[in-house]
Amino acid sequence: MKELRKISRLRKKQHLDALIMEARNSSSPMTAVHQILKRYAPKVRQKRLQLRTSQGHILTPQEEMQQIVGHFKQVYKQPDHAPSGRPVDQAVVFDPHSVLLAFSKLPNKALPSHFLPAPFWRASAHLATQVFQQTLVAAYDREELLLPKAWHEIQVALIPKPSKPATSADSLRPISLLSPMAKVLAKLVAEEIRPIVSNAATHIPQFAYLEGRQTCDAIDRAFGHCREIRERRQNATVTTRDRRAGKTAQIVSGGVTLSLDLRKASDSIPWQCLQTCLEHFRIPASIIQLILYLHENATYIFKTPRAQGSVLAGQGIRQGCGLAPMLWTLYSLYLASKLDTAAPSALKTFFADDFRAQWTIETWSDMKSVPTQISKIVAVLEDHGMQLSPGKTVVLYSLWGTQVHACLKPMLYQHATLGKCLRIGAANLTGKCYLLPVVMSHEYLGVKLSYKNFEWQTLKHRLRHSWIAYNRLSALPKSKALPVHKRLQLHQCICLATLRYGLSCTGLTVAGRQKVYGTVRQWRALANNLPHITGLSNANFLTNFHLADPLEGLDTTLIKRLDKVESGPVAQLQPTVVKRWWEHLRKITNDPTVTQAASKVPLRHQDARPPAPCDVCGLSFPNEATLRWHISNVHVKLTKEQHHAKEAAFRERKASHMQHAHDGMPTCRHCRHEFSSWPQFAAHHNRQCCPVLHLGCAPTLPPYPPDPEPLLQDEAFLQEAQSDDWKQLAQKIRAIGRLHYCPFCNLWMAKTAMLHQHIKAQHVDATAHLDQCQHFLLTRKGVNSPCQHCGTRHNRVMMDELTRGAAEMDLWKSMMNKPGEVGQKWQGDRAEDLSRQKGRQRGDRGKGNQSFAKQAKQASGPSSLDNDEDDPLREAVKLITTLSLRHEDALAIHRQDTSYVFFMKTSPPELTVLSDLMRVGSEWKAKKEQSPALVTQPLRVVLLGCLLEAVTTRMQSLQDPTLHAKAQTAKLLNPAGDFHYMMWDDAEKIYQNKDDRESIPTKAVLEDIATLQRLILQPRVVGRFHAQRKLAPDMQGEVVPFVLEIGLRNQASHAVYFLLDKYCHQAIWHLAGTSLRHDKLGRGALANALEKLAEKL
Q1: Which residues are CB-neighbours of 153 under 8 A, at least 6 positions away?
Q2: Where do Basic and acidic residues bias regions lie (predicted)?
């Protein structure tokens, strides 16, 4: 017995070693590990679901099933009646050998609870094949195709989603379990259409579910575009040298990426669209008939220990069968053909239900077209039953240029919770508006997409997942169940495989290789061999435990993958940017240092650098940065005088760095190193980094010849400048090429207008010289400069002429001020006239006289003028009031073309719609707070739509003879049933019919209101629709005015305006207890109150 146990343990150990080695040597180690765990892990009992209400109350089993069934009825769009069989046109016949092969290869996956496991079906493959063939032949012998009910039943196992609590049905993931017969039938149909799918996908970038295509192909397209845009941005930087060479900055350039994920994509495919798709790719009619029959008769069975329910399928494709991947691939190819028209300039990539579009922006119009193309993409997807996944659909962009902000401003929107978003309008008449979050990086197929350093971000992302997998194995070092070498092998199969995923698409730099090599720390922790305890180096640790370097095999895997894709059919799908990305990957694999940016500062030898001694304690430091840190932290009590002296010396050295420049450019004249900017050049000398000047190294090239002296230090030039006039001086400066150089330090500036600011900032001591230059320019005639419009040449006047002109203006001013009594008399007469105007009644004067009355009050006497002069605040308030009232008058004129007013009655309750509008508004606000993503229309559109719906409903209720008679009694209808126009009679205090306008038939009214209901859903149509008073349950007064404002800028707004103009004063509004008219020309209550307050000042 002891020998038997010993042999059993030995064989078990050998078997486990073989499995681990098999997984380790597999091309996909993680998949192999999962297969091993799936095969040998103990079965885990399915956790019981515990759903709750929205208030958190636990549901009973029956209530749980009702919630589950109700949720999936909405997902699968359950039809109202059970489907019937399809007429048989042509029978589908399968080869018996193919059927036998399908049964013999039935996978070890879960089957419905009332079926035997898969090994029994594989063992009885011959018998199952006979039953399958007989059943299929019998189904086609009838007039209608009719398969057994068990073939259509799909048992659904619900498991919680990892990221959501299992408290509601929408947080559960359905796992479909088909019968073995249904699985085999689906696999056979999939094999029939596989050649057609492969042929259709030849020129379409769908990289999922297709032979010879993999995840790395989709990632390569994304990374190739991102690297192309990143290199363009690096090359687009305009440095000082570029400006001197004549290069200008681009207006708008860059790239945009749309990463779009579809929500419940497979479950949302309409069957009509699926049939169109199958016919588009010329699938045989018999196969189309069979596919649609299988989906139309699918029944989803939900079981819990105490309840059971079922849902009939109304849309979508069946999950859990071998046909679903082929159907979805075919449908995605069909969508790709439609999206080529919607976004012709985008680089599109498909992977399962993930869609990505990338644009290269070169002009302003390219960027303007991107939101339009995105809206068309969304419209195409929605027209074919797809819905966006709001949490996974994002936009990335990298844009630069002089007009980027002006181009992006109308496209971006700052959302309270989503942050910066790209606003996408609807390309159809649905009126929807999408806000797509703008992010800097995004996870895509396990890697990180970004226009910056996506290689490093991907490596960090994979390292994080590697540590997560390692933490799951953290209990292994404490357990003696596995020996050390088993733990290390298990780590290589799981953690190292997790880390390596995606790195064959990015390559590794020197820094990246160091990060990957850090995996040795995890190995040493698993082996309890920490370096600070054992003192063993990493190399010796790998040797002692017979472990390979974690970097081993990465480069080989990358090169093999590149060789395979470059010589395969996938290379024909990839654009030029992807092929350049492949070349880059080969470079960094052969020489990882090529990605390390060359140091902008030449290498320094630490030993040759002169030390920086401390004046307080005498210690020496390698550089001044370390010295300053030492002084600030050690010698805290350093005197202010010493501190100021140190800072002054540093500023003096910083200001003198121009003596080391060459030809006014940031080029070191000693070591000839060219810098892209002046701060880098200044740091090169301020930090004493020049190898020739500071470190004493011998120059490799001869030094530059000396630069010419600055203009203000050239005595010969100054003498000539004093003798020449301005025109000759300017021509001379241009001729010697010193127009863009600073006259004090020889700094070259791209714009001569910036020289004045540079002199003020950098040459503070030269202010006197600057004043002399300005005086010199003002005392000379200007150069004859032609007008840019007419070409006429003008001379700048001399200083003495300007002086004479100013003196002449002073003379005219003195002459105007002499007859003071005339001016006083005019003011008095004007005040008297205006006072008489002020005494008139309000109804006898127009609005224009109000401003004159205020002027009269201001000009009523010397005392008022003195007070205004003494109190400038009062004068400012008066001016602001006048300006505000003028603005109010201008807006009132503008509202004549945009505004309407609804007067809604507060009683009787059965007629007014105020209570309905209040209820709808409250529900809209509650829904906005609880589920903002579900609210697609603003409150103003919702309320206006409810008012129109109320009018439509009450018009339809007039078919009742009693209500029709009441409407005629109220003079709303004529005997023919047409609606009158009605106007308020102020004398009689009632509405009277207007005979000067023709009545409108009921049918025409209903058509126009339906048009209004459709048009108001479009963006920028309804600008405002709100009450002038706050709504309450018990409203005081007879009516509540509602102001409606219509837009001006699109065709839908014009159509709404003309329809509302047509129905002003129409009797149809009285059915809902309201009336409609144009907004009148006049000031509002707030403006009138402001006017009264201003008169008291």
Answers
A1: 112, 179, 299, 301
A2: 827-847
